[in-house]
């Protein structure tokens, strides 16, 4: 190429290897920060969605028991280590069974969002070993006088969680 076409005699235009490596390093750092924040946002959103779905299921169970004038139960289905499902059982009578009889007239199973689990906890937030069944009976709501505490949490990082509390007699649900 003729020197007069290059602008300055002997100068070449282009990007040096050092400049290219600097750009790649900056882009890599920005991507690393962005991916970490995106993963945490995704986990937080899934945990909140699980808490909201369980809350809605508790409210539906409570109002269904009142409307049908019958016992309805909501409970966790699996062990606390891998609990990703809960169920709602509807009975025809106004008193809730203590064993396997009578059989429910209808049972519905709900899944938690992917990557989340639902566990029962005690008042201090530790894993509870008590039964995870809430009975809703007419005319009010739950027959439990002590609040029931649950947690919707991310399986891979249990510090990402939402506390769900079903209060005593009227079965009001509080999510924190």
Automatic annotation (TrEMBL):
GO cellular component: cell outer membrane; periplasmic space
Coiled coil: none
Principal location class: membrane
InterPro entries membership: N_methyl_site, Pilin-like
Swiss-Prot/TrEMBL keywords: Cell outer membrane, Membrane, Periplasm, Transmembrane, Transmembrane helix
SUPFAM superfamilies in the record: Pili subunits (SSF54523)
Keyword Membrane: yes
Protein name: Prepilin-type cleavage/methylation domain-containing protein
Cellular compartments annotated: Cell outer membrane; Periplasm
Lineage: Bacteria, Thermotogati, Deinococcota, Deinococci, Deinococcales
Transmembrane annotation, as ranges: 20-39
